[in-house]
Design a protein that fits this description.
The chain has five domains: 179 residues, no CATH class; 115 residues, Chitinase A, domain 3 (Roll); 105 residues, Chitinase A, domain 3; 88 residues, no CATH class; 93 residues, Chitinase A, domain 3, CATH 3.10.50. The chain contains 25 helices and 19 strands. The strands form six sheets. A four-stranded antiparallel beta sheet has the order 6-3-8-7, with helices on both faces. The relative contact order is 0.10.
């Protein structure tokens, strides 16, 4: 398992760095001109002089003088590389599912940046950054209608919200109308978990870019304070939006607060008492009392009172609008607000720290990430799809769509509709480039993507599904054209193709084989073991003495030349070991004590301190250079065996596949201009 994990990791590293080493050698043969002479033939593949030098310069500094030795070595590497790829293809390794899946995975990663409208993304990023410079407060009225609603239901929702807008424009209070008619349940009082939650009358508090769905955000930032928008459509339905305030961006802040809560079912007197307490606390702060001490004494938020009232960092959409208004008046760290009121009671806050919005360069990566996850990303994708349609001559037949719609029944809403019900319908729905998509193709898509749900208007449902099918198909077609449209992408994909093949086959023939072929490794070692010699070593024992009382006795026993086992048996006569020993063959530099001794047999070293113990060494003999055992040098021997297997394999490939270098053309690379 460790070997497999190691090889898997190595594969990812090698494939990704392949371009900087060998894989970047791949040729773009389509760019070759007929006047460019063939310099090299490998397994019937012709490589021109221009192609070869172009590849060489990918791995070397362009413009540097070409040295013959360097180019000869490079030529040899290139030939070996191409031979390995040819062999992998001959073995059918490029047809194996695991290879195709891995290559497809790399392709998806490489293709993603090509399947976007960079200009649209840049415009959306800058728009979002500009909007992040201000925080907005808005109220809304929602009339629900699904995207797949029938035309009649959609019109009914439209008429309803238009009537509400007329009432507001004639002077009715927006919040009053929201509480009465909005289908957002938060607009009016409601019961939840056994308590009554006060309605917000449509007030959504403060927010900034990315906090709301994109159509809603557009309406808010494109209207002035006090304006009531035209009806805005989102996935939730139709909205009327009234912007009630705009403030410079708060960014993120950390504050401390004192909160005095109204008692349950508070009377007017109760409320006045809470207000009085807030004013008393504020007076203490004005006179210099420590905020943390006042918070501990007065604040009803027991989770923060003992911590100085400090709240976690938060952004504008994470706090009551009354807090945001109060924070907007605090200009510098340490400023304290006057007491202010909310539905919960009275509050006093202190600004501890603030993180403003960064520069565009600082914010752009986070913004780009949010765009991909936000519905504004659909805008960028739609822009790319529209450009793709124009580029490849998109055409569609909506009459054919209407014909198909007639055979779709309500059974699609309980996921039991079958594409066979569209049998015989084979007209083209749309064409993009060289690819046509028929009624039958869309019928299969509908059947594969049907889900159980509420019954809806079939025509509206089909229209939404058709748009999705059409967009997905256009993206897929654009994906299939990347190699034709972008030479760099084609080269990169070819490099990944060859890199994965090279790794997989080399792994089989060399790397894993050298590790798993124990007999082959042993035979290689036996033939070459004199290449892996130990230097002169000292056969010695190092005794560690833990009880100083036995030191003299140990030295006597050592001078007698008794074996280690007898020495340890005589000294360690109880369960606690008073002396331990390490016996091995030491090389110079391995032990300072051994290096300090005279390398002669029967030498007993001086007693030296080592932490809480003392040590003494006894020399048994000097060992002349000798071959290392296989296990003593397995890593080095395995690496050399891999090199041996590689050379043998290359020899076989060169014998199997014809290689011809046109030396006359090759020599012109060094001709003086």
């Amino acid at each position: 398992m460790q070997l497999e994990n190691h090889l898997s990791t190595m594969k990812r590293i090698l494939v990704k760095s392949f371009f900087a080493i060998i894989c970047s050698l791949l040729l773009n043969q389509a760019s070759a001109q007929s006047s460019d002479p063939v310099m090299l033939s490998i397994a019937n593949e012709s490589i021109t002089k221009g192609e070869f030098i172009k590849v060489y310069q990918k791995n070397n500094i362009k413009g540097e003088a070409i040295e013959r030795q360097s180019l000869e070595e490079y030529l040899d590497l290139y030939i070996n590389f191409r031979l390995k790829v040819k062999e992998a293809e001959a073995l059918g390794m490029d047809t194996i599912k695991s290879f195709r899946d891995e290559l497809a995975s790399y392709r998806r990663q490489l293709a993603a940046p090509y399947l976007v409208d960079d200009k649209a993304n840049e415009a959306l990023s800058r728009e979002a950054y500009l909007r992040k410079q201000s925080d907005v407060r808005a109220s809304h009225i929602l009339i629900k209608v699904e995207r797949t609603a029938s035309a009649a239901d959609t019109l009914a929702a439209w008429n309803k919200i238009i009537q509400l807008r007329k009432r507001i424009l004639k002077g009715e209070d927006f919040g009053k109308v929201a509480a009465e008619a909005s289908e957002d349940p938060s607009a009016r009082n409601r019961n939840a978990d056994g308590r009554t939650m006060k309605g917000n009358h449509g007030d959504l508090g403060y927010f900034t870019a990315f906090d709301m769905v994109y159509p809603f955000e557009n309406a808010v930032y494109n209207n002035k304070v006090g304006d009531v928008s035209i009806p805005i459509r989102s996935d939730f339905g139709y909205h009327l939006i009234k912007v009630t305030n705009k403030l410079p961006a708060m960014g993120k802040v950390q504050i401390a607060h004192i909160m005095l809560v109204y008692p349950k079912n508070a009377t007017l007197d109760d409320s006045l008492k809470v207000a009085d307490s807030a004013n008393i606390a504020y007076d203490l702060l004005l006179k210099g009392s420590d905020f943390a001490s006042v918070a501990k004494k007065f604040s009803d938020d027991k989770s923060t009172a003992d911590k100085g009232g400090i709240l976690p960092w938060f952004g504008v959409n994470r706090m009551l609008p009354e807090f945001i208004n109060a924070i907007s008046k605090l200009k510098k760290t340490g400023d304290i607000s006057e007491p202010f009121q909310s539905d919960f009671g009275w509050h006093i806050i202190k600004l501890n720290d603030r993180k403003p919005i960064g520069s565009f360069d600082e914010e752009k990566e986070e913004i780009k990430q949010k765009i991909t996850k936000n519905d504004r990303g659909v805008e960028a994708q739609d822009s790319f799809i529209n450009k793709t349609k124009g580029e490849y001559g998109f055409r569609e037949d909506l009459a054919a769509l209407t014909e198909l719609t007639k055979v779709v029944t309500d059974s699609i809403f309980n996921a039991s509709w079958s594409a066979s019900q569209a049998a015989g319908l084979n007209k083209d729905l749309f064409t993009i480039g060289t690819r046509s998509y028929s009624q039958a193709d869309f019928a299969k898509y509908l059947a594969a993507n049907q889900r159980k749900g509420l019954k809806r208007d079939i025509a509206a449902y089909i229209a939404v599904q058709y748009d999705q099918f059409k967009n997905e198909s256009c993206l897929k077609y654009a994906d299939t054209q990347l190699e034709n449209k972008y030479p760099d992408f084609r080269s990169l994909m070819n490099e990944y193709h060859d890199g994965i093949l090279l790794f997989d086959l080399t792994d089989q023939k060399v790397w894993t084989k050298a590790v798993k072929d124990t007999n082959g490794l042993q035979n290689y070692y036996e033939k070459n073991k004199n290449n892996y010699l130990w230097d002169k070593r000292l056969d010695a024992s190092i005794y560690t003495i833990k009880d100083p009382k036995v030191t003299k006795n140990l030295k006597k026993l050592l001078k007698k030349g008794l074996p280690e086992e007898q020495i340890l048996t005589r000294i360690n006569q109880d369960t606690i070991a008073k002396v331990t020993v390490e016996h091995k063959k030491f090389i110079r530099g391995e032990s300072a004590l051994i290096d300090s001794l005279e390398w002669k047999p029967a030498v007993i070293g001086p007693i030296t301190a080592k932490g809480n113990a003392t040590i003494v060494a006894a020399i048994h003999g000097v060992v002349a250079p000798e071959p290392k055992l296989l296990n003593e040098a397995r890593g080095l021997i395995t690496a050399d065996y891999q090199n041996y297997l590689e050379k043998e394999w290359i020899s076989q490939l060169r014998a199997k596949y014809p290689v011809k270098v046109n030396r006359e053309v090759f020599d012109t690379l060094f001709s003086k201009k």
